[in-house]
Design a protein that fits this description.
Length: 179
Amino acid sequence: MLNELINLDPTFTESSFKTKVDNIFVMLHMSLMTDNMKRVDHFISDNVYEEFNNRLNVLNSNNERQMFDELNVKSTEIMKVDITDEKYIITVRIISRYMDYIIDKESGNFKRGNNTSRVEKENILVFEKKRSAKVQSVVRFCPNCGHPMDVNKSGYCEFCHSTYNQENYDWVLTSIKTW
């Protein structure tokens, strides 16, 4: 199916897709750690945003911060490619390593978890792209006010604060599970 995807989507390359997957994975964890989901919401589906925002709300209600020190991606593997009439779906396995622990938000004191050594975790991510996705230009413009945007920096317009809707142009993370 990967070869079929390459034939159907001329913008797809395996190496650039894996790089995008790794970056979104790291950005999602950093957004949780820095209490700034706005930074990544254009790369993720509403369901993933809600799941991580709920985690963030629980942490904030307990005055806690989730830490992912020394976060890195050890490997990224495309496990499955599905092609429907409406979209392309790719399931990816990421092996990641990081210290995973909770600190008190005010004092910075360690509360629980592992802050002494990195643990290896398996992550299954699902990405989707509409078959009718529009080709993005190098320079992206706000769909609301037309101002140039740096989608990789923030994903929202610095002038009118509209969110860039990535799902109309590119791959979006629709599911993530970690073991």
